[in-house]
Amino acid sequence: MRPVYLEMNAFGPYAGREVLDFRRLGERTLFLICGPTGAGKTTILDAVTYALYGDTSGDERTGAHMRSEYAPPTEETYVSFRFSIGSAYYRVERRPEQELAKKRGEGTRRVSAGAALFETDEEGHELKAIATKSVSVTREVQRLLGFESKQFRQVVLLPQGDFRRLLLARSDERQQIMQTLFRTQKYEVFLTRLKERYDGLRNSYNAGEDEVKHVLAGVGMEGEEETASEVRRRRRAVAAAAVQSDAAAEELDGLRRKAAEARLVAAHFAALDKAERELDELRRKTGEADEWNKQIERLEKAAFYGPRFAHMDEIGAEGKDAAQRLAAAEEKNEAAAAALAEKKRRLGELADTEGKRNDADRERVLLKALLPKIEALAATAGEARRAAAAASDAKRACDAAEKERRRLAERAEALKKETDTLKDAPAEAEKAAETARLCEARVKTEERAAAMEKEAAGLKAECAEARLEAEQAARAAKEADLAYKNIQIALLNGQAAALAAALEADRPCPVCGSTHHPAPAAGSTAVPAPDEVERAEKKAAEAKLVLTRKEAELSRQEAFAKAKEAEYARLRADVPADGGPEEWREKTARAEARAAALREEAAAYAAFVKEAEETARLLQEAAVRAEAVKDDFDRKERLRIEKEAAAASLYRDIPGEFHVQGAAARKVRELDAFIAAYDRERKDLEGTVLGEEKSLAAAQGAEANLRREVIRLRERYGEAREKLKEEILAAGFADWEECRRLQGEGERKEKLKQRLDGYRTALHRTEGLAEAEKKATAGRQRPDMDAYEARLAEKEGAYKELLARVEGARAEAQSLDRAVKRIEALRREQERLREEFRTVGNLYDLTSGGQSGVSLERYVLGALLDEVLAAANLRLAVMSRSRYSLQRSVSWEDRRIKKIGLDIEVFDQYTGYARPANTLSGGESFLASMSLALGLADVVQAYSGGIHMDTIFIDEGFGTLDGETLDTALKVLVQLKESGRLVGIISHVPELKERITTRLVIDKTDRGSTAKFEIV
């Protein structure tokens, strides 16, 4: 990740919009972020971290807490950060939840938190949106960069006061970092899946054993051999029962065939009986069928006259319609005649009021002649009013201009007094600021001196303790050596006594060869065993080794103590002990307070000078403006007098009732409307009366024609009715109404036809069926079906019982057979699982660390950490002048360490011993941490194509280095230019500002801070 463009708005100490274009750095890869304390140097890193992850570089403040206290209440807080990863460019935007003043009206409005991530081109133009919600933006940033916020602050940012986090991280924390950076989670996933397979095989094997027991329990057996024997026995029993059931089935089939033949004969006799009964019933209904036939004939005769009745109905309907139209025409003509009479009456009234209309026309002509003067009066009166208002406004403006001129003159005099009083404030403020900076540097020096003094005292105490331990080790070594020598003497004495016991007179000694034995060795009470001597020897050697280590540790501690005392002496040679850190902090606070007060006075002086210049300019403009306003007032006053005189002349020539503006015009409009309405109504009435007279005459003629049509239809209907009535009576109907009623019973006629047809069909069918059954039963006797059925039921019951016994035996045998087959299948599967479990188990034991104590992933991470430490040592060797190197803590006798595997220790070439990293001093820790971060970036860049660690930010830490070490560290950082890595340093150390010419300068004012690049 490489920064391209950072935009902050109302963020931290930055009140407004601050833009940092990192492209201005060009090929410069090392730059310094500098500025006063509290100006906002670390806020730059906070903004980058907040944009990417939604938290800050120190992980102590949230985005909501980063809103600027200097920002206006309407200014929104947000951060926009553009960065590149390889050849791809991105822009991430975030804003915290915040309360802003409403743009209109009073009160506040809540702005919710938001975030967005875009892919852009090199110029920042948006290509596509990747994520638009805070959580998804953070997740996508983690995917792009390759690590989370916490890991980002450990390998890309070295935060103020926390730069040793990666160096001193616990083994599990370092594992998480390296897992993410080197993407070794696949080994953990592999091990997890392998364990799942391992557990699955074991569980499957055990489940198979449980299922075998379950299968045996299900069939009531205890062992597999017993089950197989029982299966064979039951198979023989099933075969014997099957033979019996086959014989019973053959006998039952013969009986069923005879019963079926008897049922067929019995069915024919039953069908014959039923057919004869039905035939008797049908023959008894012959008279009823004849009546149905007569009713059908009468209904069909009535239907014959249906069209004649329909024709009569059509004539009647035409007559009714004509009568209705005649009544409507009569009513309409009466209404039209009444309306025509009313219009003729109104036309007469209009003729009587024609004189009033002519008077209105004459009045209208006179008023139109007077309108031009009335309009001139209105215009002149308006001009007079406007002239009076303009003159009044000009008078007020004239008074205000003179008042402003006097106010500015008084303010200019007051500002001259203020600037004379504060003219020395800027120079004094600069001196006070320099004094505060020197005091602040002295505080750090005294803190360093106090830390050195404290560390030296601690080292002296450690020396005393080491000396005591060395003395104790010497005593223990001496005692162990003496014990070893004593037990060795006892062993020799015992061996001599054993030899002496075997000596014989005049026989040579096996040791010296003499045949004389004047003083043979006497036996001792206890002769040590060889293993006792070996243990004593080993104990003496171990005590001597402990003594050697303790003496070396004492020498190392004394060397540390002397080095620290010398370092403290060099510091005090440059800076005398004339006050401790607290005293210099108080001096710094007083100096900063004085500097702040003087800065306020200097700012006030600058503001007064600027205001005085502006006031002088405004005073000159006010004098010119007052003169111009006076001339304008005189001109407008003369115009007012002129317009008021002209308006008074016109008032005298116009009647009083028309002095009101618009009165004459309204009167003319009223007269126009009256005359137009009169003329329009009279013209409309004259035309309407003539047209309606013609229409009424035509309508009355149509009414007479309708009356004649009604009379004709009534006569025609009566003639047709009389003729049809005569024919109906002649056809045998009682009257007109009976014939019409029977015409409506068509549905009953159809039902009678269906009933008659059904009767005739049933009679024919039943006669044929009775004849066929007589032929089928000819020469046969009725069978006794009750006897047949009883015997058949008895045989079927016996067969079913026998069959049930066979099926039961077969089911039991099959159940046992299935159990045996299932057990055999389970045993085959268990054998297969046993073979696979042997392979998987060995592999899991190897990769999980069961044999070595180091898992596969820990082994890979350990190898990667070795490479990281090797890369880090290339720089640490230079910066520590070949004294220190980083290495992994490896002690294969310590099982705990074997499980950790990623701890780091420091090897000191001066002492020849390795020690924990947390024993380094502040400056040494800083160098080791910076080397580790750079080495990690080198190795990650080489291994992980998707992770680009092109940038590192270091917040403070250089203040703990002496001048020579600072030079060496800077040389190492400058060498990074060859790799193209961007390095940003935040520091108050004055030497860095002199040596690093590319700077991001933060300026602090009472209205907030500003930031800009300075490239020399």
UniProtKB/TrEMBL annotation:
<keyword id="KW-0175">Coiled coil</keyword>
<protein>
    <recommendedName>
        <fullName>Nuclease SbcCD subunit C</fullName>
    </recommendedName>
</protein>
<dbReference type="Pfam" id="PF13558">
    <property type="entry name" value="SbcC_Walker_B"/>
</dbReference>
<dbReference type="GO" id="GO:0004527">
    <property type="term" value="F:exonuclease activity"/>
</dbReference>
<dbReference type="InterPro" id="IPR038729">
    <property type="entry name" value="Rad50/SbcC_AAA"/>
</dbReference>
<keyword id="KW-0269">Exonuclease</keyword>
<dbReference type="Pfam" id="PF13476">
    <property type="entry name" value="AAA_23"/>
</dbReference>
<keyword id="KW-0378">Hydrolase</keyword>
<feature type="coiled-coil region">
    <location>
        <begin position="696"/>
        <end position="727"/>
    </location>
</feature>
<comment type="subunit">
    <text>Heterodimer of SbcC and SbcD.</text>
</comment>
<dbReference type="GO" id="GO:0006302">
    <property type="term" value="P:double-strand break repair"/>
</dbReference>
<feature type="coiled-coil region">
    <location>
        <begin position="785"/>
        <end position="843"/>
    </location>
</feature>
<feature type="domain" description="Rad50/SbcC-type AAA">
    <location>
        <begin position="6"/>
        <end position="234"/>
    </location>
</feature>
<feature type="coiled-coil region">
    <location>
        <begin position="265"/>
        <end position="346"/>
    </location>
</feature>
<keyword id="KW-0540">Nuclease</keyword>
<dbReference type="InterPro" id="IPR027417">
    <property type="entry name" value="P-loop_NTPase"/>
</dbReference>
<dbReference type="GO" id="GO:0016887">
    <property type="term" value="F:ATP hydrolysis activity"/>
</dbReference>
<comment type="similarity">
    <text>Belongs to the SMC family. SbcC subfamily.</text>
</comment>
<feature type="coiled-coil region">
    <location>
        <begin position="384"/>
        <end position="483"/>
    </location>
</feature>
